[in-house]
Amino acid sequence: MWTFSILTCLCLSFSQLIYCQEITTSMVEFVWDLPLSEYQRYGWYGSSPEFITNHEGNKQSWRLRGKINYYDSTFSLHLCYEALIGIEAQYKFYLANHKSNKYSKGLNSSLFTSGTCFGDEGFMEYHTMTDKENGYIFDKEIIKIGVQIVLGDPVFSGRTNLEYVEGLGESLRLQWQNKSFADLTLVTAQAEWAAHKVILASQSSVFSELLANSTDEHPVNYINVSDAECGEVESMLEFIYSGSVSSPTNLINLVYCAHHFNIAGLKSYCENRLRFGITCDNSLERLILSHDYDLNQLKTSIMAYIVKNKCPTLKGESLKTLITHPALLSEIGSFFTEMVHW
User: Fold this and answer.
1) How far apart are CA 319 and CA 332, in angstroms?
2) Could you tell me the residue ranges of all domains in the chain?
3) Which of 60, 133, 298, 311 satisfies CB 3.0 to 4.6 Å to 306 for a cystine?
4) What distance in Å separates the CA atoms of residue 255 and residue 234, rounded to the nearest whole number?
């Protein structure tokens, strides 16, 4: 059953120091003040500040995510959710207009679980949004993207509840810190790390296969990871046990770890981190990495950065390097061809 209360509005912008505000009503509205200067024209992908609701005693974290699709000149818009407990919700996107009525599209209903995003791949044509004559650009070159959300019933899955999940996460972190009941050792020529077979096997299909043949008569108590092209074993294990990495020394090496041991969450974590700090100097290395390891969002961000900043990545010695990666070079060519139509 849906419940309604007074509409609550919250406007946030990237310039604010405080990005998070808690809303306790069951019908909320969130407005993302997006400066035109914040996004790149081709292949831009970005997220709004966090927006927190507190419904039925549970906290939910929401973000709007936008993307400019270079292939059809449209603006995609999605609503993303993070929480320990799922929720049923109805939502409607809109674009504010200072000349006439706001532009909105139909009401949608979805079951949100942590990490899910729902939305509209072609919310509006990019040129329509950015043409000042249409009224969508406000003072200080701001576009106001909004979403109205009606919060429904929380959705529990089996015995999962807030206290249980939080307690389990804390237990795993303590296991990592204290090495209690460790029954496996990862070994390189330089160091050793204590770990737990069941935890590694649950997070990595590669570890699961390596440990599948372990028996009482022939136990697998040591795994040599020297040949894994993984120079970040410590950070990899920290992610497996805690879901994050406090201070990875080399994200590219961490990508190798995620790929070699097939840890999807770690791969996604590295991709998101690598999308920040792109420069002309590192664009070639990261572009090849993104292609070799299927980091498609990173690849799009790098190509857009190269165009916007006129990087010499496609010239001289860099071009000679790209020629040795013909599939990537072909994809870059397609990207530039699509941009010509903008």
Assistant:
1) 11
2) 27-154, 162-272, 277-341
3) 311
4) 13
C-alpha to C-alpha distance for 198 and 207, rounded to whole angstroms: 9
pTM equals 0.55
Q: Is 94 within 8 Å of 136 (Cβ atoms)?
A: no
For residue range 297-340, list pLDDT tens digits in order. Answer: 888 888 888 888 888 988 888 888 999 999 998 888 887 776 55
What would the pLDDT profile of 85-124 be if each residue is shown by its tens digit? 888 888 999 999 998 888 988 788 888 888 888 988 889 9
Segments in the chain forming alpha helices (H): 126-130, 162-178, 197-203, 205-211, 233-242, 251-260, 264-274, 280-292, 296-309, 316-323, 326-340
Specify the fold of 27-154.
Answer: 2.60.210
Q: DSSP states of 147-177 as a string?
A: EEEEEEEEE--TT--HHHHHHHHHHHHHHHH
Task: Report, in angstroms and rounded to the nearest whole number, the Rg of the chain calculated over CA atoms.
Answer: 23
- What is the CATH code of the structural domain delimited by 162-272? 3.30.710.10
- Domain 277-341: which topology? 1.25.40
